[in-house]
Design brief:
By secondary structure, the chain is α/β, with parallel strands linked by helices. The chain contains eight helices and 14 strands.
């Protein structure tokens, strides 16, 4: 079916990732190989907001897939000011924004601060008992924008060295996980080993058993109701959708859960600024890694609008983001 022949969508939503705004001059990534456009990332967000506000069918919500401001803000003591600047732009329209947490959120704020911040979007969660995990320190929730469709926001740094007090049990447990595979003095340096083990770095994290058990229950309920479920998080979980160094620590455990449920149709992530995509042909689940704003030149763009139909989702990409069609199996 040609896109022009598609009927009016059931609903649409916007998606953007890795804005990483900071009021500093352009710089480079950790390995000094990729240029980063810290100031102009705000203009690219404005471009996206302008496009969404002028759409014939207005997006019902926006998915912000993490790393909303850059870690350099912490160094310059400008974290709150940078966050104010970016959120002011998001607040320029009345559309709800679902914020995902990435590593740069934790470079700027600890977990306790984030759980009481404007980046806590759980007020948009479903009011049902299963709307969020029982553990209050896990930033995960579900919401339903339209009957028959559910979205689940996952906390990819639930198990992590980032955002946790060094004296905490959670920090010690995460250190035990990473040290099994990474013996470098600098834990942001990937281990020299098989490619998939390169994910065991400090800028990644994983999903706790409590969160995975909750997700399993959410998806079981969606299976029974024959709903379509889209899952969003900061870290990619399919090896064919990203560079191995960007994968979640226990991506295989999450994949096993997704593959055991018929309701899952798509998983969206950020983190890997070059983007990526793959289709799991055994399950029909689409894995999208969205291109990052921060490494997008000022004369381009990096965002998308997704139109949802009964049998598919259609991503209209702008700039570096490719157009894609996600058929429901």
């Amino acid at each position: 079916m040609d896109r022009c022949s598609l009927p009016t969508p059931l609903f649409t939503f916007g998606v953007i990732a890795d804005i990483q705004y900071a009021d500093i001059d352009d710089g480079y990534n950790y390995t000094q190989t990729r240029r980063r456009y810290y100031r102009s990332s705000l203009q690219l967000l404005k471009n996206a907001q302008r496009s969404w506000s002028k759409s014939a069918v207005k997006p019902q919500f926006i998915l912000q897939l993490g790393d909303i401001i850059d870690g350099f803000n912490k160094v310059h003591d400008t974290s709150e000011r940078a966050l104010d600047t970016v959120l002011r732009e998001f607040n320029s329209s009345p559309v709800k924004v679902h914020h995902v947490w990435g590593n740069h959120e934790f470079y700027n704020f600890n977990r306790s601060a984030l759980l009481h911040s404007r980046l806590d979007s759980r007020l948009h969660a479903d009011g049902s008992p299963s709307g969020a995990p029982a553990r209050a320190d896990i930033y995960a929730y579900q919401f339903s924008p339209f009957p028959g469709f559910t979205f689940v926001v996952l906390d990819a740094y639930d198990v992590s060295l980032l955002g946790r007090e060094e004296s905490s049990e959670q920090y010690r447990n995460a250190m035990n996980v990473i040290k099994l595979h990474n013996n470098n003095d600098d834990l942001n340096c990937p281990p020299v080993s098989e490619s998939l083990k390169q994910r065991f770095t400090m800028f990644n994290g994983g999903f706790s058993k409590d969160q995975l058990d909750w997700l399993d229950c959410v998806l079981s309920s969606a299976d029974e109701k024959q709903e379509r479920v889209t899952i969003v998080s900061h870290l990619p979980v399919h090896p064919n959708s990203t560079d191995p160094v960007c994968l979640a620590w226990n991506f295989n455990e999450l994949l096993a859960i997704l593959r055991s449920h018929s309701s899952v149709v798509c998983y969206m992530a950020g983190h890997a600024h070059d983007g990526g995509y793959c289709l799991d042909k055994d399950t029909g689940v689409h894995y999208l890694t969205l291109d990052g704003v921060i490494e997008t030149p000022p004369n381009s763009d990096a965002y998308g609008t997704v139109s949802v139909y009964t049998d598919r989702m259609v991503l209209e990409g702008y700039g570096r983001v490719m157009n894609r069609v996600f058929m429901f199996s």
